[in-house]
Amino acid sequence: MRILDLITPKDLSRVAKLQMLARQVVEGLCSGRHRSPHKGFSVEFKEHRPYVRGDELRDIDWKVFAKSDRLYIREFEEDTNLRCTLVVDRSGSMRYRGDRSQGRSKYEYAQQLAASLAYLMLGQQDTVGLITFDDDLREQLPPRSRPSHLRALLTALALDGSKRETDLGGVFRKIASKLGRRGLVIIISDAMGDTGSISRSLAHIRSSKHEVLFFQILDPDEVDFPFSGRIQFKDLEQADNEHTVEAVSIREAYLKRLGDHEAKLRDACLKNKVDLVRLTTDRPFAEALHEYLALRRRLR
Fold first, then answer.
1. Structural domains of the chain, count
2. Could you tell me the maximum CA-CA distance found in the chain, to the nearest angstrom?
3. Are 191 and 294 within one domain?
4. pLDDT beyond 60 at 33
5. Are 259 and 230 in contact (CB under 8 A)?
6. From CA 61, how far away is CA 74, in angstroms rounded?
């Protein structure tokens, strides 16, 4: 069935917008292949070694033979594809949109970041898959490296977020069983969950030798709590849960709890050797890609 039969023109325009935006963000970024320690048959020469019986004749360096009358095999450094899975949070808390976020909710920011990462990696022939989640796993696309795979990834990312709650620890444990052979797992979430459960789940993912990069997406309002006066707070994951409070009376307690949560999250990531990058939705996410590339260079 054609994509036109599956989604509306509005959906298609959102996909096109994601693709265009991803292309603009990635344009000009310096990206490189992910070097493998194994020897293969690529375009970059590594070294010569003596010919032994059974080697392919086509791999003999005949120019060296003409000069030395000895048979040598040309070896190359293999350029390997990175196997990456994007894990994107679409739960209710990701729907928050403050006044300083350039009109973007946390989920829209996550969509755009994930689209840009997918565009970047597919452009360098990496293999990219996608899992979205709220209280359970939702869209699941296995890693592929075909350029046409980008449309499938963007179509899945363009779907609206949900109003459901999520248990990050429980969801991450489910995700761990879906990942297959070792690769890079990029989590994009606000990380609003029990840090103990998150830590145990990250340990489970890391036990399979996956590298993990965690982009934590927050709205500036969540970071500095700029509210004043009497204000109504509504739970984005539970429709009937809302409270009107005097903002100044809870600001100090809120900031302390947030600080404690952030410290525990950092400790969980440090303990499990997970790279944590905190982003706020007022920050250009092209900067996030620069951070990703810097981390990849460090990991190589």
1. 2
2. 89
3. yes
4. no
5. no
6. 6
